[in-house]
Amino acid sequence: GSTFRVQSKSNIRITEFAPSLKPTPKCDLLEDAIVELYTENEFKGRCLVLQIDRVRSIPDFRKIKGVKKKHFDDCIKSVRFKIPQGVIYRLFEDRYYNEGDDTRNFLDLQGSGRLEQIPKLSDRNSPGLKLKKSFRNKISSAQLVI
Q1: Do β-strands 78-82 and 34-40 pair in parallel, antiparallel, or remain unpaired?
Q2: Contact (Cβ atoms closer than 8 angstroms) between residue 35 and residue 52
Q3: How far apart are CA 34 and CA 72, in angstroms?
Q4: For the segment 130-139, what is each residue's pLDDT rounded down to a tens digit?
Q5: Nearest alpha carbon to residue 76 among 113, 109, 112
Q6: Cβ neighbours of residue 55 under 8 Å, at least 6 residues apart?
Q7: SS3 of 50, please?
Q8: Pick from 80, 83, 102, 105: most CB atoms within 10 A?
Q9: Percentage of the chain surpassing pLDDT 70?
Q10: Which of 110, 1, 6, 95 is nearest to 51 (CA)?
Q11: Are 107 and 119 in contact (CB under 8 A)?
Q12: How far from 83 is each of 54, 98, 116, CA to CA, in Å?
C-alpha cells in the first residue's frame, strides 16, 4: 500500500511507497496522463504523482510539501511518465518556469503513449542549451507545453 497527502486546492498526490504506473495500457488521452517524480534514483524514495490534465503547471516546487513537511524542490532524481503521443510536459531548472529565460535548462518529457522511464536524471542532459548539465536535483517548476 501507499500513504499519501493531497495538497489543498490541487490535485497532487504524494506517496511514499508503491509506484502507480504500469507498462500497459497505452495512454491516448490527456486525462489519463501521469508523471511520477522520485526523490531517489531507480524510482525510490518519496514520490510526487501528477495527473497532468489537472496539474498543468507547478510554478514553485518549494510549495509542494509531503511527509514531515519536506518539499520537492531540487530533490528529484528519477522520473516515470505516461503521456499521450505529441504531448510535452516540461521540467524547469528554476522556479516560475525559468522566469522566462530561454537560456536556462529544461527537460521535456515527450509523450509516446507508453510508459517512459528515466531511472537516473544524472544521466540526462539538456541538449542545445548553453548551460548543459545533469538534471539530478535540479527541478524547481513544471508546465504542460502541448
Answers
A1: antiparallel
A2: yes
A3: 17
A4: 455 667 778 9
A5: 109
A6: 10, 11, 12
A7: strand
A8: 83
A9: 75
A10: 6
A11: no
A12: 13, 23, 9
pLDDT in tens, 8-54: 455 565 554 545 666 668 999 999 999 999 999 999 998 999 999 99
User: Does pTM surpass 0.85?
Assistant: no
Q: Containing H/E element for 143?
A: strand 141-144
How many CA atoms lie less than 13 Å away from 122 in the CB half-sphere? 7
DSSP lists the bridge partners of residue 15 as 4, 47
Residue 121 DSSP symbol = G
List, in sequence order, every residue forming a beta bridge with 24; answer none if it has no partner: none
**Residue 38, Cβ neighbours under 10 Å: how many?**
23
The 3-state DSSP composition of the chain as helix, strand, coil percent (nearest 5) reads: 10, 35, 55
Q: What is the DSSP string of 52-107?
A: TTT--EES-GGG-B-GGG-B-TT---EEEEE--TT-EEEEESSHHHHTT-TTS-EE
Determine the straight-line distance between the first and last CA of the chain, rounded to whole angstroms: 33
